[in-house]
Design goal:
heterodimer; A: 108 residues; six-stranded mixed beta sheet; four-stranded antiparallel beta sheet; B: 121 residues; mainly beta; 11 strands; 0% helix; globular
Chain lengths: 108, 121
Amino acid sequence: EIVLTQSPGTLSLSPGERATLSCRASQNVSSNYLAWYQQKPGQAPRLLIYGASSRASGIPDRFSGSGSGTDFTLTISRLEPEDFAVFYCQQYGNSPYTFGQGTKLEIK
Amino acid sequence: EVQLVQSGAEVKKPGESLKISCKGSGYSFTNYWIAWVRQMPGKGLEWMGIIYAGDSDTRYSPSFQGQVTISADKSINTAYLQWTSLEASDTAMYYCARHTGTARVSPLGYWGQGTLVTVSS
């Protein structure tokens, strides 16, 4: 089973700042099958990024993903008030398709 | 429009059985994999398993194998998650989600609204 470790656990930033979230895998993620999701309180998760770097439909271009192999990054270039939430990475290349433990992005 | 509509919140006692549902619409139900994801109170997302609605091919996380059963009825476009004997530790929100593509190796692009299961004596 691939274990995904996200860091930091909590990130405190202000609107307009740049956010960088990390996801590290315990072994190589097959074909970069790595996704990022955003979850706001009381809501289901929403797909942001798939294939490590492709934006899902309707996702603003301030969200970008990068990385390969075992190290992946989600970057939000300029934070908007609605971006503050919990973010999860997930690998879907090898069953079980595990999630990271999440990074909470909070307003400073 | 792709929609996944889950059954309503449940309150059960330890030892009881339960089956929750996830009805898909707006797409060809039998061509896609559906996943079940657990979220315990205040915690993160846990991948439980998936089912291919076309032939009910099912894969489980080792953490949930033998603890739950995932099934589907393609005649009514519905996937299920069931327990035979609930425990207090099963208290959680359960989401169903559909893979974006017809291949299993695709992300979860469509999510149900969640079903809250509370197990308490």
